Amino acid sequence: MTKIPRNNPAAEGLVKLADPCVLCPRQCKASRASGQAGFCGVGIEPVVSSAGPHFGEEGVLVGQEGSGTIFFAGCNLGCLFCQNYEISHLCQGRLQTASQLARTMLDLQALGCVNINLVTPTHFTPPICEAIAQARDQGLRLPIVYNSGGYDAPDVLRQIEGFIDIYMPDMKYADASVATQLSQAPDYPSVNREAILEMHRQVGDLQVSRGVAVRGLLVRHLVLPNGLAGSFESVDFLANHVSPSTAINVMDQYRPCFKAHADPRLNRRPLAEEVESVRRYAMDKGLRIIE
Known about the structure:
Elements: H1 9-12, E1 47-54, H2 59-62, E2 67-72, H3 85-88, E3 94-95, H4 98-110, E4 116-119, H5 125-137, E5 144-148, H6 154-159, E6 166-169, H7 176-183, H8 188-203, E7 207-209, E8 212-222, H9 231-242, E9 247-251, H10 272-284, E10 288-289
Parallel strand pairs: 2-4, 4-5, 5-6, 6-8, 8-9, 9-10
Antiparallel strand pairs: 1-2, 1-3, 7-8
């Protein structure tokens, strides 16, 4: 298990990055530590929408007893097609202190979960790292999964090195204009690629023991209709610049949600051939397909 840094000045300094907030690539400079909501819609104290064993994740994350999933409210992306917009855009959830969050992690371990799966953690990295350290001191032994939209600042990722065992970022877009139109994030492709490189530097390729992931990088790529995700370019980047053994889940779960019905590019599910062509291409490139 990854050893958690103790009295790490860099980790403690994460709080300072939240006031004014530069925790994510948006650098909206909201005074989140003082309670002001940033672009993400929340202050710095964690807002938890739900927590419990989850069996809908990738097989290597679920095991026999489920992934110990903690869904955080708010998001630093503004995706038009968000399938969890009640949580990400409307910020539904309840406040928790870092100590309460640590207790939640320990409770999930007691239920038999095989990991602690932090969903949309980017904007809460300071209290999350504090909670992980507290939980480890109290006996938490499970791998920590950082399950993000992939819009993460590489310099912040460097500061949380040692807290995370498994990075599971999205790789949403390869084209800046599409990222601008669909998620209000023109720099998403460049930032996302830098972030994934940093994640891989920290944890390497995905490692699985007895059918369960214990460490490494697992990239999620949601295939969008009409080639909007730039899937082939993203696969090329992973194979050529990250690792030819990168684990990837080519996802076919897209369906029109939130504001997608009003956009003719997004108002249908991807065709089976659109998904399968990406999956075949990733396999041909040697990537490790995870489902």
